[in-house]
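Section 5.1 Outputs to date
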Amino acid sequence: MIKNQQEKGQFQPMPSRSTRLPIETIDTHMLRVAHPQEVPLPTQQELTGPAIGQVVAAPPRAAQPSRWRVRPKRIRKRFILALSVVAITCLVGLTSLVAWRIISPSSTEVTLYRVSVKKVDLPIGGGGIAYPVQRLDISYPFTAHVLSLFVKPGDRVTLNQPLVQIDLSQVNGQKLSTLQAQVAQAYQDMLAAQSYYYSVLRLGNPIVIAQAQQQYTTAQAQYDTLVAEEQAPDLHQGKIISTIAGVVTAVNIFPGQLVGANKIMLTIFDESSVVVRVQVPLSNYGQVKINQPAQATPSASPGQSFDGSVITIIPNVNSQSGTFEVWIAIPNTNGMLLPGSNIYVRIQNTVATLVVPRLAVLNPDLDSTVFIVRQQRAYLQHVQVSGYSGDSVLISSGLQADDLVVLVGLDSLQNGQTVRIAGIES
C-alpha cells in the first residue's frame, strides 16, 4: 500500500530525525516567535501515539526567534519615537514663532509729525441777553396830577425834549402858602413906605424926601419879587424833560391821572448800541480781557453777525451754572439788535499752545492717545486735549515741543513696535 502511494506520488517518505531540511524548503510564513500563551496543548493522539500501521510524519522543530523578524519591529518603534520628537519640536518652534510674531511684530512704515508751539485762535463762547446801553425811567418824588402827555410808545426823543406836564399845586402847597403870606406882608410894607414918602413931600426937606423915596422903592421891589415867585409856573405845573436821546418803550400814565410818588411814568431806551451780558464758563476766567474783540450772532437771525468788544468783566460766579458774566458792547446803528433778544457771543482768544493734526490723535474726545516715536519704536502716549482749531488739535499736556508723533500708519501699530520712517512733517 505504501508502495502504491509512492508510485502514485501521493505519499513521500518522512525523512529521518537526523535529516535536516534545506533552509530553502522551510516556509518562511511559519517562522515567528511564539508567545507562550499561543503554544497548543498536545492532543489525545499525540499522548497515546499513532495507531498501528499508521504512518506519522515527524513533527516540525520548534520555531526559534528570528533576528530578521525582531529587528524591523525595533526599528519601527525607534522611527515612531523619532518622528514624535520631530513633530513636538516643530510644534514648539511654530508656537514660539507665532508668539514672537505677536510680541514683536514686524516694523511698519510710518510718516511722522514734529510737534511745535503755534498761536491759534481759540474763541470763548457763551450766550446772553441784549440790553440797551442806557435806560431812563421817568418818575417824580411826590404825588401829582398829570396835566399833559407829549409822547407815546415808539416815539424817538432827543435830549431835553419835554415828555409830560404835571400839576405841582399840591406838591408845592406849603411853599405857596408861605409865599402868599410874604406877598401880603410885602404889600403892606410897600403901602406904608408910600404913605411916608407922600407925607415928607410937604415938608420940603430934600434929605428926608430922598430917604423916604428910597424906602418906598425898596419895598415896592420886594413886593414885585415875591409876587413873581408866587406866580412862577414851576410852582403850579412842571414839564419833565428827557436827559437822553432814545426811543420811548413804555408809557404808564395818562392825562388827568393822579400819579403816586416815585412811580415810573415813562421808559426810554438808548438803542444806539446794545450790551450783551454773556455767561462764560468759569474755566475761561483769566482768558477774557477788556477791549477784547467779540462777534455776536442773534438767535433769531443766525446768518448775521455783529462786531463788538468786551467792556466789563463781573468777578462773580454763578454757582448753579458755573459761569461768570462778561458784558459785550455792540454798535447798533441800523437798529437790527433788539433789547431782550438772545444772542450768542464768540470772544476772540489767541493762545500759544502745542498743536498736532487731528489724524495723529486716537479718540480725541475720550481718553486721547498718540503714538510717539523714540529710537525707531512707537509708544502709546496719553495726552490732554484742550480744544480744536480747524483740523488741528490743541494739546495742553502729555507732549513737548519737537516730539515726533505718528501721522500716517498708526492704524496697524502696536505699543513698542519698531517703525520705518518714511518722512517727517511739521
